[in-house]
Amino acid sequence: MAPRTIMVEPFDLVVFGATGDLAARKLIPALYHRDEAGQIAPGSRIIGASRRSMGDADYRGFAHEALAQHAGPMDDEALARFEERLSYLEVTATGDEGWTALAETLAGSPRIRVFYLATGPELFGPICERIGRHGLASDARIVVEKPIGKNLASARTVNDAIGAVFPEERIYRIDHYLGKETVQNLMALRFANALFEPLWNAAHIDHVQITVAETLGLETRAGYYDTAGALRDMVQNHILQLLCLVAMEPPTRLSADAVRDEKLKVLKSLTPITGDRVAELTVRGQYRAGAAASGPVRGYLDELGNTESRTETFAALRVDIDSWRWAGTPFYLRTGKRLPTRVSEIMVAFRPIPHSVFDSSAGPIAANRLVIRLQPDEGVKLCLMIKDPGPGGMRLRQVPLDMSFADVFATRNPDAYERLLMDVVRGNQTLFMRRDEVEAAWTFIEPILDAWTTHPDPPKPYTAGTWGPTASIALLERDRRTWHEEG
Ligand code: BG6
To answer: Does residue 293 surpass a pLDDT of 70?
Structure first.
């Protein structure tokens, strides 16, 4: 049965950076799908703003093209209704052009007002300042994208600039991983089942692995990516957020601050990785020429056209949490571009049974594993030992209890942005990062970045299409463990 859709209140959404990549690939398709599902109230408006000179009709054309490329199958009637909501204003983020027109457009509208900054972070301050100066901020909400800073100091500067105009309860910092279906399912799995929580601690869990592997390389994002690298791009935000959801204590309820308080406690209890520990507990890599599914691919430096770059395209870390629950249970994190397959998953490795009642003919008894697959093919898999069928004696084998969401729920899996955009309109901040979380994550990441920057060695090379540098394998082997890899 299709899920029930509840219409949100009418809103005006102003998208800065309206002609950019994020708007085309994610925001416009997400809004279209919510509109098609009947969630967007009549009268709601989507106002594109950017410095490009174009009119409403041109912007509708831009959106039409974006939808054709990124939205999948569409309904003609819904498309026409959606395009009607779109308008465009030429507004400069660092100048005064267009602001009066924007103020006039929004004037007297009783609707919920949302500003979405799909721009580089250097424009967050100037845009917020102008929103404030033109009297547009009262009761409005603001949505900002990562990266929020390059380190702790710059994150604070960005947060201060936004905070000078908007109070924290109206700031929505997007981490699109929090909007992914399976990420929320992690909370359902942990807190809506009695089965796991009693075992969810160091006494029963040997270690946890979080892998976010991508097959893509640099694509068109060289300008941004080369100044960021895998640690800033993926670990500081998405992967640490996943770690928090696995490791946090049960919140008292599923309210924004109750959840975010618990995540913050996790971030603050991460054992700092500093000094010599950086070389011991982290691995950084950069891909060389190799092979992807599509055929031979160039190395990072070649794609970039800069042979000097020391930006990492792969990062692996062993992270420990100084808490009663997790002392002695490491979390291994890894992410990289140009890896063999696109997969994001969390693997929880339980401890082995304390004593075997079986004799050696039963074979080895593997410890239980819970694998939560975020993408592709979202699902949950619990690996259990069972008896091999047949009369040949007691032989044991590990088999998965495998639930693929696509098989269980015959519905389209909404993109993370669909949920997150509607949550902004609903005023629900649970899946958005609070300022203190972002800053705590930078506090943990910064010493690693600093050590990498000052270290004389460049990142370790790995061949495109492999699982990163061999040092990443060694990181676990040293602890007598191996990365979970299937197929
Ligand atoms: C973004 C990163 O935040 O997440 C990209 O900047 C990365 O480099 C992307 O490719 C991955 O997102 P997803 O949803 O495709 O896993």
So the answer is: yes
Domain membership of residue 62 as a residue range: 11-145
- Is the torsion defined by CA of 260, 265, 268, 269 positive or negative? negative
pLDDT tens per residue, range 335-345:
999 999 999 99
Task: Please work out whether the CB of residue 261 comes within 6 Å of at least one atom of ligand 1.
Answer: no
Q: What is the CATH number of the domain that holds 16?
A: 3.40.50.720
More confident residue, 320 or 223: 320
Q: What interhelical angle do 56-70 and 28-36 show, nearest 10?
A: 80
Ligand 1, atom nearest to 224 Cα? 6
Q: 140 and 238: one domain?
A: no
Q: Which two tokens stand for residue 443?
A: 């506090």
Rounded to whole angstroms, the Cα distance separating 314 from 335 reads: 6
For the CA of 416, the nearest atom of ligand 1: 14
Name the CA radius of gyration of the chain, rounded. Answer: 24
Confidence of residue 487 (pLDDT cuts 50, 70, 90): low
Mean pLDDT of the region 459-486: 96
For residue range 322-358, what is the model confidence (pLDDT) as tens digits?
Answer: 999 999 999 999 999 999 999 999 999 999 999 999 9
Instruction: Check pocket membership of 145 for ligand 1, CB cut-off 6 A.
Output: no
Give yes or no for residue 312 CB within 6 A of ligand 1.
no
Question: Atom 9 in ligand 1: which residue has the minimum CA distance?
Answer: 234
Among 93, 128, 145, the domain-final residue is 145
Q: Is the CB of 35 under 6 A from ligand 1?
A: no
- The helix (H) or strand (E) run that includes residue 50 is strand 45-50
Question: Which atom of ligand 1 lies at the shortest distance from residue 212's CA?
Answer: 16
Question: Considering its fold, how many domains does the chain have in total?
Answer: 2
